[in-house]
């Protein structure tokens, strides 16, 4: 277990957080490090330098996952992976993903300084495109061997930019992502610290969440096609108005969830684009996104079928055509009981206020769960806010989470 002189420095974590927050921050106070854009790449360069200063061996794999390695005593022992992501949604806060990477960095710095070498390698990851500019979890999917040539060839972002073009513009060969697959026998487990991004911990003034399960999600891009027409001369009953199809669907969402979902189901229409987009033209086409979640994949399937039926009925009623693309389907996962125990026991030993819970947000951990046991540590989100500049976690909660991270690593990587 961590020795007394071995403890995380909240000063170093906060200094790193403030430095990285400057990379990609805009006038509106949000961070814009979307996958593979100039700020995301600059953030990785900054992080790689910090890893090297901490004495870690660094490399980037074919998916541009950045890895900092602390060698263990036994080169044959399967490595412990830790980390998260530093790419962000547009107008993001400064903690989502980033906090997990920087607390992981601090834990490896502390281990390096104490001179205690872990049994197995401990590798710190900053995964590429967790946030889904190109669908979601690109870097962790590449590590798990789930990326195919079709993913690389067909993935586009909401603005229509192609993954292939964006990666090439960043000096990367997108096809190298097919080489990023890691032999699962070389990995013993994966541990990720993340902000909760919801209200559960802060509502009960708890300091740590011991994650037992992570929600699944599916994301669709839906297109409704009708007929553009004059806003003044076209009678209401003669319109094939694509936006009204979106509006009808939005009103169906509560019924779809009530009839087919669970109390953990969530559905969000996050983006709507109309064309031709002029105030005096009936919208001929509407493209919108749907993000649907649940911790039970059977429920996810039922929600997908009900969503499709609702869209078919609306299209018939309004004389529209509808098509959709499944941008991602990410299974829900349960965390490994041993890693859950390590996190819980570390929180217990630190005398912290904690609870076991599920994650309503998706994380790289649920992809990595396809190749090794995973565990997650949550720290509270002030007022449950995230994916916005209002995202925050109190410094002493960050320090508590980092101590739990170090304690869990000690339970996993120092057993002889
Ligand atoms: O969407 C999510 O749940 C995560 O923030 N990528
Ligand atoms: Mn995240
Ligand atoms: Mn996020």
Outline the secondary-structure elements:
Elements: H1 10-21, H2 38-53, E1 57-60, E2 66-70, E3 79-85, H3 98-114, E4 122-127, H4 138-143, H5 149-154, H6 163-169, E5 187-195, H7 200-203, E6 208-214, E7 216-225, E8 229-230, H8 242-260, E9 266-268, E10 272-275, E11 281-282, E12 285-294, H9 297-318, E13 321-330, E14 333-334, H10 337-349, E15 354-359, H11 364-368, E16 374-379, H12 395-413
Parallel strand pairs: 3-4, 3-5, 5-16, 6-15
Antiparallel strand pairs: 1-2, 2-4, 6-14, 6-16, 7-12, 7-13, 8-11, 9-12, 10-12
Q: What characteristic shape results from the CA principal axes?
A: globular
Instruction: Please mark out the parts with pLDDT under 50 across 5 or more consecutive residues, or reply none.
Output: none
Give helix % range. 25-40%
CATH level 1 name of the largest domain:
Alpha Beta
Fourth-level CATH superfamily of the largest domain: Zn peptidases
Oligomer: single chain
Largest sheet: 9 strands, mixed
Give the N-to-C terminal Cα separation.
12 Å
Please compute the radius of gyration using only Cα atoms: 23 Å
The CATH topology label of the largest domain is: Aminopeptidase
> Counting H and I runs of at least 4 residues, what is the number of helices?
12
Q: What is bound: which ligands?
A: (2S)-amino(hydroxy)ethanoic acid, manganese (II) ion
User: On the 0-100 scale, what is the average pLDDT?
Assistant: 96
Portion of residues in beta strands equals: 15-25%
Task: Specify the structural class.
Answer: alpha+beta
Give the domain tally.
2
